[in-house]
Amino acid sequence: MFKEIWGWLVGGGLVGLMTLVEVSKIKINPWSAIWKLFCRGFHAIGRALNGEVLDKIEGLDTRIDKLEKSQEHAEAKAEEREAKACRLRILRFDDELQRGCKPTKEHITQMLDDVIWYRRYCDEHKDFPDGQAIMAGLHIENDYNQRWKENNFLEKEK
Fold this sequence. Notes:
The protein is built from four helices and two strands, in the order H-E-E-H-H-H. It is mainly α and 158 residues long.
């Protein structure tokens, strides 16, 4: 019985002392140290229990990163294919204009949209070849401006 009381007194005294301890000018907070140890213990236990799940999640993260890179690459390739198709439409339309074909207002407006998109793509991708299509785009714009002034578009059949 005396040992139990003595144990409680010593334990209580240590708790009280730990709460009040201050060594030199460095403050020691034993409760936060105990809390950190407690949290580390729970973290280790959680890691041990969920290690397999955490490893699978890490593997999924790696696979998701690979998929995202693959998706970005596929999108870049699709955008490059669209740029090539756009360039082809611009060059063909310019050929039609040079042969004297009279376009509808809607058709030439659509081509101007292609010219604008193509220029933006070329500005963002400096290594993409664009010499002829840029000049053809300028010709299409000039032709459009001239036709607009003269109201000289092919009328759609009704």
